[in-house]
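2 proteins. here.
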Amino acid sequence: MGLFRKGTEETKINDETKSDSEIKRELRKESKMGEEKAAYLTQDVEIKGTIKFSNAMKIDGKFEGEMLTEEGELFVGKTGSVKANVKVKNAVIEGRMDGNVTATEKVELKEKAHLVGDLKARTLVIEEGVVFVGNCNVNPDGFKTENTNFKEWKKETKKGTE
């Protein structure tokens, strides 16, 4: 039982109510996430703090704090519970999210998602059955996730790997 696992394990889709196109779309997302060397917090993991990432992250466990990325994608799985302010490129939320979400591109709230907090995104998709309590600002011109700490961290990381 490790904290992070690179890539994804086998994709389990047992919901017989999903159409073939929905299943194929989910499989493409899972495989794309695996190609991007995604970080994965398993269901038995609880973390508090700040997470900075540049590719993709899937959370099925619990996280509390702050999440920052300029180009990354966040996936909160059905068992995932996040209490954080999140700044990402894209987010797909199936579980519980308490905090503000700012996405430079797209946010998808899946059927049983719970989002309590404000949301800003260029594009928003909300499925039937979602619980969303907060303010929503969808702007086709997009939002910038300006955070000097993240930019400085990214520069330091690149210097340290050279």
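next one coming up
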Amino acid sequence: MSTLRNKVQLIGNLGQAPEIKNLDNGSKLATFSMATSESYTNKQGEKVTDTQWHNIVCWGKTADIVERFVEKGKQVGVEGKLTTRAWEDKDGNKRYTTEVVCNELLLLGSKN
């Protein structure tokens, strides 16, 4: 059960092209946002679609795969863990962001 403590699995579509960075230490970083959607019928009988956006971070060989094969609109599956980062903005306000650090990427959908 210890492997289930912080595990996220998502299937969704990229909202924009991935951002790729080659860091000074030689490692590669890929970041992108992806949308997951679910539909339900509300009390009035109307179909409602709820879309959630997730920030995804990939490192190393996974970032290489993102750079080569992933583009805006592409459907992917990701598995990873949730992390929250904190920093101070230029005005001294504490800011936070929650991301999924991807350790496994699955390319879905049709081939281009």
